[in-house]
Each structure stands twice: as structure tokens, then as C-alpha cells.
Design brief:
By secondary structure, the protein is an alpha+beta fold. The protein folds into 5 domains: 144 residues, no CATH class; 119 residues, Beta-Lactamase (2-Layer Sandwich), CATH 3.30.450.20; 108 residues, 2-Layer Sandwich (Beta-Lactamase); 161 residues, Reverse transcriptase/Diguanylate cyclase domain (Alpha-Beta Plaits, 2-Layer Sandwich), CATH 3.30.70; 247 residues, EAL domain (TIM Barrel, Alpha-Beta Barrel), CATH 3.20.20. The protein is built from 31 helices and 29 strands. The strands form 6 sheets. The protein has an 8-stranded mixed barrel with strand order 20-21-23-24-25-26-27-28, surrounded by 4 helices. A 5-stranded antiparallel β-sheet has the order 6-5-9-8-7. A 5-stranded antiparallel β-sheet has the order 11-10-14-13-12, sandwiched between helices. Helix 21 packs across helix 22 and helix 22 crosses helix 23. The longest helix has 34 residues. It is elongated, with a radius of gyration of 52 Å. It starts with 7 loop residues before the first helix and ends in a 9-residue tail after the last helix. It binds ligand C2E. Ligand C2E binds next to strand 21, helix 23, helix 24 and strand 25. InterPro entries: Biofilm_reg_signaling (IPR052155), EAL_dom (IPR001633), EAL_sf (IPR035919), GGDEF_dom (IPR000160), Nucleotide_cyclase (IPR029787), PAC (IPR001610), PAS (IPR000014), PAS-assoc_C (IPR000700).
Length: 830
Amino acid sequence: MIIEPQQIALWQPVVDKIYERFGVVCVLSRYCVFQSQATPLTELPAKYFEDPLQLTIHSNHIKSYCEAAIESQPNHDLAELDFQLLVMPSKQIFGGISWQPTLVLTEEQRVEFNHELTSFIEDIKGYICQQYNEFIADETSARVQLEDIDPISVQSFIDAHEEHVWVKDLNGVYLACNRSVEKAWNMSNSDIVGKTDEQLFDTRTAQMFHETDQKAILRGVRTSVSECESFDAFRNKVWLETYKAPLRDKQGQTIGVIGVSRNIAKHKEAEEQLLLAASVFRNAVEGVVITDHLGNITDTNESFTRITGYNKDEVLGQNPRILRSGRHDEQFYKKMWNTLIVQGKWHGEIWNRRKNGSIFPQAITISAVYGDNNEIRYFVAVFADISDQKQTEEKLKNLAYFDPLTQLPNRMQFLSSLEQELNHARRNQTKLAVIFIDVDFFKNINDSLGHIIGDEIIIELGRRFTYTLAQDDVLARLGGDEFVVMLPNVSGTDYVSSTINRLRSVFEKPFLVAQSEPVRLSASMGVSIYPNDADDHDSLLLNADSAMHRAKSDGRNNFAFYNESMTKASVEQLKLQNALHQALVEFQFELHYQPKICLKQTGSLGLEALIRWHHPQLGQVSPADFIPLAEEIGLIWDIGLWVLNEACTQGVRWLNSGFSFDRISVNVASLQLQRADFVDEVMKVLLNTGLPAKHLELEITESCMMNHPEEIINVLKTLGNMGIAISIDDFGTGYSSLNYLKKLPIDILKIDQSFMRDIPDDGNNAAIAKAIIAMGHAMNLKVIAEGVETKQQAEFLIANGCDYAQGYLYSKPKSADDITHDSSIGVRGC
Ligand SMILES: Nc1nc2c(ncn2[C@@H]2O[C@@H]3COP(=O)(O)O[C@H]4[C@@H](O)[C@H](n5cnc6c(=O)[nH]c(N)nc65)O[C@@H]4COP(=O)(O)O[C@H]3[C@H]2O)c(=O)[nH]1
């Protein structure tokens, strides 16, 4: 049975009845699928459009079934298939039982629907035939009855309708119209009836009306002729939809045309909403997937394709399960579905797999869409690809827990790992070691070679440490040149020592850096052990740090195991630090002076100013203890200035009192020299005190040259040009670069007192001292030896041509008063 388009209007009541009885939607598939999808669908009553999405989806299904059928059976009679395909049952008819139409290829190679549907269709077929017959019979009897109806009753019948209703004969003369028409056209019934459109309207309108009358008459069926926006009597905007149908006499001859216009504003509004929704769906940046209540995909948007890589056609009818990444277990999905069914909504993050196999995270909201009977009809999932967001989160996490330079764990991450391992150690009563590593003099690398090279070395160091450690050991960078290692589950100190040896061995090979000589480094390491030295992570780290400082003060390139006295030492250090700040304010410092003796003639060359600190409680504190601390805490600049000022003031005092001396030497710390205003400050002091520059000598240590040597050379040159003498203190103990030495405007080399020890018995020291004297002279410098305590040492120095000496043999450092009154100190230049 094939329904022709002309018969659609005729069939309308039949379709309606089928809908009422079976709750099915009859779609004239032959036309909607193979000819024009739109035409037959718009012919259906409005109720079929209540859920147009469903209708569309169904029509898609039909299309794919038909295509499948055609493909599998090219010679199959499509007309036969036609009917089967145009029946789309709604769920209710199966009492909510889920029903999935499937095509079955029978033994006779026929394409059929599954049994359930086939019998259902047979059922409908029978019913439709019966309805059709009844309809034809009803229609015939209705026509007969209509003839008997009083025309006045027909008028009141049409007047009862809000729609505009009018009737014209074949000549276009109005036979009747209802009140709505009168109102809308603002004319009375008598003005209209008996007139033609030409008499009532302008020519263009009349012509248009006439044309549409003809269209309906020619087609012989009810025909939609226009949809237009207009205004009602109250100037409200309305949408009018006009249908025209031929008017037939008893013999079935067309004798005129009936017109009906109705306000479809609501329908338009819905259509508008629908268009809007469709546009949102199409253009959403988020991927959208719609599934039926069974979870079969019925639609997707373009973003879905962009994000997942799947085209719509590839996924239609599939379950979204195809996107699963395997990252979530069944429990996860179970929970998700439970929430979805119970609450109607689920929101969360899911890792899914794209078509190309890559896995990506998505933030997704799935909502259930309910039908009139509160049953779930669809699921709509809206999701966004949050790969970028996840990456940023990961980066932030990385920044929070990992050192960006070496990619090693940072302090935070280390402490958390340490905490975990400590818990483990507590439970299992095992031991754990923390090794604190600090690279010796690393600041000098940064200062002299720059931070980029410094960073390269740190990265390389991290790499080297990593290679030496076992898999379970944890290496972290705490910052700067500080690293820390945790050794979980250590059996004893032997294991720790062997690890330390391995860690130290990484320094055996020099670090090769661009555009510079290979750099040799060493490190100081400190160890603390759980449970012996501390039982919480902070204390373990602190104690390993204290041990490292001990290793450092023991001469660097060393390691030390923590002991309790170290904690005491750090406490002392802290006390000292606080006291040092007070010392300057409370004038607790004093200068002592030690004469420098001329070995070639009798007399003194000058005096070295040495700071003394007498603290009211701590007593006398050695400069060897507090000067390095002052350097560390940044007080050295203020202290240094105080010393310079004091020494120059005393020098002027002596000169004014007739106490002559060649030069007063003042120790200058490396950090002082690095200050840009150092030269200015020295000039200021000389100006303020009035000491002639030729009476001042500045003692700098070799290590000063390690940082920015070129700049230091310039500073020293300026000072030298002012007439100030420069001497190199502790010569031979540090960074001896002859290359720089020869460029320096220095006057004197000072042999470090460590080389004076046991001279002349100590062959090595004697050889070094001799070499320094010879080298100094070769460079046209004077040489002074410090720490001379014995006559033998003095004789050795004289025998080897040393110029000056300083030491207890001649005089201990003394107060200015004592120096002034010590007649043994015959001060004169030599
Ligand atoms: N065993 C022995 N020692 C001798 C002998 N002759 C002198 N000394 C000591 O050796 C140190 C020489 O000073 P330094 O090498 O510049 O070493 C100095 C210097 O580096 C630093 N220092 C002292 N005063 C100042 C200062 O005003 N500024 C700066 N920046 N550093 C200072 O503190 C260090 C220690 O100073 P002091 O304790 O005064 O120690 C002085 C001095 O008292 C001797 O025959 N035998």
C-alpha cells in the first residue's frame, strides 16, 4: 500500500486515529526519505512536531535502514519496504519495554524487521485498512448530512472559530466569511460577501490571493499557501498560516475554494527556539553527544568531531563506550550511571580516547531528558577538552613540587617524601639517613662566570648525583647550591659513608663549561640519621644542615655526621649573630695594632689594625669567629667602615703626636671591595680624618680576586693611584691566579702564617715560603711573612731575602695606647 501525496490530506484523519490508538508516528517515508523530507512532514498535524528532534532522529534511522536495505537487496521492491519503514512506534506501545528495531536478512534473502516489529506492523496494517474503509464511509455520509445543514448554522459554526474562514466560488466571489475575517479586514460580512478580491484589495494582493486559490483548486487537496507576519486589530504582531482547500459539490466537482488562516505565533516561537537550540548545538565550542535512553548515540555536533576525531556517521547508533580510555574502572562508570539515573545529572572529569588513540581529559556534564510520563528519553552529554587546563595544572603542580632547573624534587616534595619514609621507618623500626650537600664556594662561580654557567653546573651536578644513587634514594635540590639526599632503610653508617664517597666522587671530574676553563668543585656534606639524631623531618634536615656547616668549617670538601654539640654550636652561632648587631650600636669594638718589622734594617714598617670585640657576657670574641659571620649576615660593610675610620683617626692622632709610622694597614673583606661605592667611602674617610693616603695600606685576600676580577683590578688601580698601598693577605692559601696577580697594582705579598709553621724544619713550608719570596721579588713586590714566632723563622726569612715580618716574636697586637707607650717599637720607614 503506497500513499500518494495527493492523498495525504485525505489520510490525515486516518493517521490521527492510528496515532491515538497505537501511539505511533506515521511518517510517509517514501516522500520524506526518497523525495522530499520536508513536504510530508509539514503535512502532519502539529502534535507530530512536539518533539521534532525525535522526529528528525527517526527520519535518520529510516534513512539508514532504507540505505541498508537498498544496498543488501538492490532488486527489492521498495514499495513493499515503504510501509514497513514509515512506521515509527513510540515507546508507550510496548509499555515502556525497550525495543530496538533491527533489520533481519531472512533465509530467502529478504530484508525484514525483527519479529516483534513485523507482527506489530501487520497489526497496524489491518487497522489502517479498517480505518480507511470506515473513513471513506464516514466521509460519504458526512457529505450527505452537510447538504441538510442550515446555512445559518454553517455561519454560526464558522463564526465560532478564531481562525479566519472564508469561502469563494470559482470566479473568486466571496460566498461566506466568519467574524474573525470581518475583524481582521475591518469590514462587515455584507461588505465582503458578493465581492471579489479585486474589489476588496489592491491589485497585487488580489492577484496573489487569486493565484493561491488556483493552486489549491489545481492540486485538489488542502494546500498551505502562505505563512506571513502581520498585525491584528490591536496592532499585535501575529503569524498567519493560510490553508486553502477545494470546495466540492455532491458530485465531487470543484465549485469553489475554502480558505482558513490561523495564528501560528506560538508555533513560530517554538520554531524560533528550536532554531536557536540547533544553532547552539551546532556552534557550541563544547562537544555535544545525544543518546537515546539506551545509550545509543543519536546525534553529535561539530565540536564532538573536532575533539574526538570521530565523524557523526561513524558514531551514530554506537554507544559512547567507544570513547573509553581504560583509565577508569567499572566502579567509576557504575557510580556515574547511578547518579545520572537517580539525580538526572552527572558532572565530572573523564579521560577518553580520541579516534587517533590519544587519551585526553574532559570535563563533562551528562543530563537526562525526560518525556511526559517522566521516563528518560535521552541523555545529553556536553563536554570540553581540558587537556590544556590539565597541562597547566600539571605545570603548576610541577612548579610547586619540583625544581624547574634540575627537575628534581624541591624542598616541599622532599619533606613530604621524607615524612612518608619516616612513617615507614617508624612502623618497621628501620633507620633512615639524610645527607645535606652544599657546594663549596659556589657563589664565586655565579659571580665570576655568570648565572647561566652556574645553572649549567647545577644541572650537571644534579645529573651526576642522580647516577650515583640507588633507585630508592631520594635526591632533591633545596635551592642555590644546596642538595639533599634521603637514604631510606639504611643498615648502618658504613652504607651512608659509601654513599657519601660516591656522591663526592662526582666532583673528581671537572665541570666543562662553555668559553671557560674546566671548573673544579668540591662540596661539604652533613649527615643526620633517624632515629639517632632526630625523629621528625624538620629536625633531621636541620641537623644534617648543622653537620654540613661543621664539615665546611673544618676546611670544606669534607663531610660530618651530626652530633648534639652541633646543635649547641648553632644555638651559639645564633646568639653571636644577635650580639653582633648590638656590638656596633653599643661601641663594643676596639682596634689593636700589630707592628710590621723591617727585616733588612732595624725598625718598623707600620702597623696592622686588627679588630677586637669585647662582649659584656660572651667576653672576648675572636675576629676569626665573628668576621666570617659578619660577612654572612651582611654586617661586614658597616664594621669595615668603622675599622677604616677608626684606624685612620688613630693614624692622624699618632702623626699629630709625633709618633711616626710608615703605613697603617686595614683588612678589607671581599664583600667590601665588591661594593660600587667602596672607593668613594675610602676617599670620604681619608678626607674626614685627614690621614694622607700614603699612610694607608689595604690588605685584601686572594679570594677577593675570584669575584669579578676585572672590576676589582680597576678598583685597586684607583686606590693605588690615590697613593694607597695594597697588599695581598694570606698569600698561597687560596685562588692564586698569577694571571690576575700580575695585572694587580699591588705592593706587598703577605705569606700566610700557616707556611711559617715549623720553619725551617718543615721542608714543604720552607720551600713554599722561599718560592713566594722569590716570586714576589720577581714581580717587583715586597714580601712580608706573618705569624713569625721564633728566631729561627726570622733567620730563615732574613736568609731568604724576605722584606718584612710580623708576629709574636716582635709584638702581639696591642691597643693604640700600648703601642704609643711601647718604646721598643721604633717606628720608621724602611
Ligand atoms: N698564632 C699567631 N697568630 C698571630 C701572630 N701574629 C699575628 N697573629 C694573628 O694573626 C692574624 C693576622 O691577621 P689576618 O691574617 O689578617 O687574619 C685576621 C683577619 O682576616 C680578620 N680580621 C681581623 N681584624 C679585621 C678587620 O678589621 N677587618 C677584617 N675584614 N678582617 C679582620 O680576622 C683574622 C684574625 O685576626 P686576629 O685574631 O686578630 O689574628 C691576627 C693576629 O692576631 C703570631 O705570631 N702567631
